[in-house]
Amino acid sequence: MHVISSEGPEQRAVLLAPRQGPTADSSAIFLDGWSTWAEIQFTASNEPALTVTAWFAPRAFARGGARGFTAIIDALELNTGFALGHNRSGYVAAVVGGRMFVGTGRLELDSWNHLALSIANGRAELRVDGEPAGTFDVPPGDIRLPARMTLGRSADSDLVEGRFPAAAASGLLGPVRVLPAAHPPEVPEAVNAADTAPDRARFAADLHRPIAHFSAPQGWMNEPHAALQVDGMHHLFYQHNPAGPYWGNIAWGHAISKDLVHWQDENIAVAPSSTTVAPDGVWSGSSVTAPNGEHLLYLTAGDFGRRPDQTVAVARPTGSGWAVDEHPVLEMPTTVPGSAEPLVRGQFRDPFVWRDRDDWFLLVGAGLEGRGGAALLFHSRDGDRWEQQEPLLVGDVARYPATGEMWELPVLLPIGNGSDGRRRHALFIAPWWAGESEHHLQHVWHWTGVWDAASRRFTPDDPAPREFDGGGHLTGPSGTVLQDGRSILWSIAQDKRSLDEFAGSGWAHNAGFPLELGLHADGALSVRPVAELGLLHERPFGPGHTITDAESAAAQVSFPLRGRHLDLEFWVEGSGLEIEVLRSSDGVETTVLGVTGTEVWIDRSRSSRRSEHTEGRRGIRRPDSPSVHARLLVDGSMVELYVDDRVSLTSRAYPVSEDADQVLLRVADGARILSFSAHYLHSAYRPRKAD
Asked: For the ranges 334-348, 536-550, 553-567, 604-618, which has the lowest average pLDDT?
């Protein structure tokens, strides 16, 4: 419990650690947008005139309650009292006498703003940074000062999913003042920068939160996307609700990295409050570098006020971030070339853009009624005017039900030359259904084939879809080509916990590890974690463990290795291998992975004492081989297995036992451990604005 530093009576709060305020002698508190706020206790009174002021540095603008209002100061009592805050677009606003008024001053994100509301003689005035921002008539008479004032949210805020306040402020709250005067005092100049970045240290004790995988600093995260390397710097964006660990008010979070594995949180890149074309959500998209060097963002613009509610828009760099164009660059077409079937209504999203010399290409996820998902293809010469082509590929949901009625997140990446000398690409999609499906949020499908830019055709080597990952938790494919030519695939690792668990932890979902794609000699896709993973190695186990003859021949090997953040690598002669990780000392909780012949599998039937986090055996096929090369990553609740650079298996485990950190290795009769290495992993995150 922390008490905010300001003038006034006794105050109490439920919030995070204090930070430096806007002036040298002031402090501030961090409001995370959903779980933190403060209360001030007063002696109720009626005042003939009153001015209330607050310093506020918003990280994001909440959607607000039913009227779109978010209170920074709430002193309402039925239809009396007052409230000062902002609307969903970030304009200063107030509620007086039961009526909401929106001013002309817009708050600046990630900067200190001084808000003031003065009420006297039936008039009220709003100010931002001392400048007038609107006056309006209010009911005449004294102003009621209630016994309780709430800071950082409306006292009776609407709830999302019955758990999360829809109108809780996000950012830094500095000193609050309540003055018996009709005019606000002179505004001191803010001398300190507003560091609105959430503090990841709040999750230090969370055993299930990964540290080596990319994640949002707090709140809801969905797929990472729009990865792009610009002048050697890696940029990654992601679907993000800064207001809490639930879906809604989706913005683009942003992080940068010099080495692809150590990340630095940046300010939110694009948010619904900053655009008129996407007021209800800035959904997934991609990045491209224009010929003039501009780093452009192509995004799905969500607007529930139009039909369909999804278009493609472009955000252009402004020097301090990105600004979205006022109009879409592409709208959902009414017909599809080469197809008699209409598009699945209202499903048009996730643009994936790339340039090939003077040509621009764009894929958009969609579906054809009664036929299956579709990767719609568009061509342009300038990135602004697009012409629709025949779809890159159309699915067959009747023959392959798990491939979905519609496709999200189509991604096309080069993977190398085939045995015939022709260049190959891989197309990835995430399936979607209008209703319930047993396959929901479990699959990513891919095809390898030849992409001909001149004819704008993609010809799969095999028309049958292939499962990309066998663990049932990897979804949301997105990709990029690095400046060294490597094709990298990103994904979201669905954690599949309940909303109550999200609320209890303060975060939801994280990225899978970035994967380097290639092509095997037999034409199959090659997949492995990027080599940069080694930069996250804290120290080796042992410092190096040599396999003894006894261990090599043993049916079971228990290493004195314990941990929840590990990189393990095995080479085994023979095809029988089992690995237990996140195993409790009593063996009640354990997650078992293995390679048996041509099957790579995981058994989560004992992963947790909580039955909702258990699942029977599932897996994926691999080519028959007399040996096994296995790479296993354990990071909090993340469990990822890669075998022979051919198949991957991404899953989650949530053991309850605090000692569930043991590792156990078993090999089948006749198999032999050739070598084994293990490293502890350290955090992927650097403090904001670090070198």
From this structure: 536-550
pLDDT per residue as tens digits for the range 155-207: 888 899 888 998 999 999 999 999 888 888 899 999 999 999 999 999 999 99
Determine the pLDDT at residue 7: 34
Residue 481 exposed, middle or buried by CB count within 10 Å (0-12, 13-18, 19+): middle
Residue with tokens 């683009």: 252
Distance (Å, whole) CA 3 – CA 11: 6
CB 346 within 8 A of CB 357: no
* Residue 589 near residue 655, CB atoms below 8 Å: yes
CA dist 21 and 39 (Å) reads: 19
Inter-residue contact 268 to 170 (CB < 8 Å): no
Rounded to whole angstroms, how far apart are CA atoms 618 and 470? 7
DSSP 160-195: ETTTEETTB-EEEEEEEEEESSSSPPPPPPP-S---
Q: Which amino acid is at 188?
A: P
Position 8 pLDDT exceeds 60: no
Gyration radius of the chain's alpha carbons: 27
CB of 344 closer than 8 Å to CB of 365: no
Q: What is the mean pLDDT of residues 257-264?
A: 97
Phi and psi angles of residue 192, each rounded to the nearest 5 degrees, phi first: -120, 140
Q: Which of 15, 47, 18 is nearest to 34 (CA)?
A: 15
Report the C-alpha gap between 117 and 632 in whole angstroms: 58
Residue pLDDT, tens place only, 275-331: 999 999 999 999 999 999 999 999 999 999 999 999 999 999 998 899 999 999 999
Distances in Å between the Cα of 312 and the Cα atoms of 301, 331, 349 are: 6, 6, 7
Query: CA–CA separation, 674 vs 573, rounded Å?
Result: 7
If you write DSSP's letter for every residue of 508-551 in order, what string do you get?
Answer: E-EEPPPEEEEE-TTSPEEEEE-GGGGGGEEEESSSS-PPPHHH
Assess contact for 477 and 493: CB atoms under 8 A: no
Spatial neighbors of 252 by CB under 8 A, at least 6 apart, are: 226, 237, 238, 239, 240, 268, 269, 270, 271, 282, 297, 299
Return d(Cα 72, Cα 85) in angstroms, integer.
5
- C-alpha dist (Å) from residue 366 to 17, 195, 262, 324, 375: 45, 40, 34, 23, 6
Confirm if 59 and 242 have CB atoms less than 8 A apart.
Answer: yes
Contact call for residues 218 and 198 (beta carbons, < 8 A): yes
- Distance (Å, whole) CA 263 – CA 67: 38
Residue 205 CA to residue 183 CA, distance in Å, equals: 47
Q: Which residues contact 549 (CB under 8 A, 6 or more apart)?
A: none
Selection from 329, 618, 306 nearest residue 467 by Cα:
618
Question: pLDDT (tens digit, 9 = 90+) per residue, 21-45?
Answer: 999 999 999 999 999 988 888 788 8
Nearest Cα to 676, choosing from 625, 621, 632? 632
Tally Cβ neighbours within 10 Å of residue 111: 17
Q: What is the DSSP letter of 611?
A: G
Q: Is the pLDDT of residue 502 over 70?
A: yes
Q: How many CA atoms lie within 13 A of 151 on its CB side?
A: 30
CA atoms within 13 A on the CB side of 497: 27
Q: Name the token pair of 93.
A: 């606003």
In this predicted structure, what is the pLDDT of residue 555? 58
For residue range 623-667, list pLDDT tens digits in order. Answer: 999 999 999 999 999 999 999 999 999 999 999 999 999 999 888
| CA pair distance 329, 313, nearest whole angstrom | 5
pLDDT at 105 over 80: yes
The pTM score is: 0.94
Cβ atoms within 10 A of the Cβ of 304, count? 9
What's the first-to-final CA gap in the chain, in angstroms? 33
